[in-house]
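Input.
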Amino acid sequence: MAITIRPASPHDLGAIHELWHTGEKGDGPAPPFSPTPPVFFTHELKTGDMYVAEHDGRILGFLSLLTRDSICYIAEFFVHRDHKDARIGGTLLREALPQDGRTICTFSSQDFRALSLYIRSRMTPLWPNFQLRVAPSDLATLPEHDVEIVETAPDDPRLLEWDSLVSRRSRTADLAYLTDQLDAVPLLFYRNNEPVGYAYVQFRSPGSLLFPEALTLGPIGARKAADAFHCACAAVAWAKHRGTMLRIPVPGPHPCLQPLLQAGFRITYVETFLSTAQDQLPDPTCYIPTITFF
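Output.
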């Protein structure tokens, strides 16, 4: 099968959306397909690099890369379910991934074929990432936190400072996307009038087929793991009165994982975080990513 790899254009987003929707729903229940692509595809196309794999004018796979400073994150990687054994995924990765020494990272699905592709592309599995979800009415007592929660303006320069420090890259456009397109509310956390961390809580979750109205928490970060625990618990406490469903992606090493599960959160999916290097990455004991762009 002759495959052409080329940069995506706005005209491709309809086919990309259909391919993504099919892959995301799998064989489970899902709402009917809507022809309007989710807003994150437009964001990825405008601020990153998106490629499609094409055969006879039909898009059979696509990949999105978001490069921020020295970190190149694979945000989307889908191959048509009927062509996953046609070497399309390997061709996409070889053609699209940079070879200039930048750190390449991603979250892999539970599909062993995808995991194998990433490992063969020099990425090392580093930790499991747990997608958690709960209806606030099902929450038991949350762990106590000792920080003050302060809502702040999207253009507060302290947000970019905190995010750049903890996420290890500058991503002004991504933070603006959270607040402008996903109605995220930014939070700062203080202890004894000293800042200890930050968080974003999205009020729109277009990446969730089943719960697009859910509140999605992340990123959430702090300098120290102990502070990260209190910031995460505080963010959940703030969000639980403001929605009917909460979502949060928690790295396996993060100190809030066990307490959140004990409080009633349920694991809905486990993915694997992989990277070509470790020294330039966020500390998973101090950082909870955003589902949208790590």
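The chain has eight helices and 13 strands.
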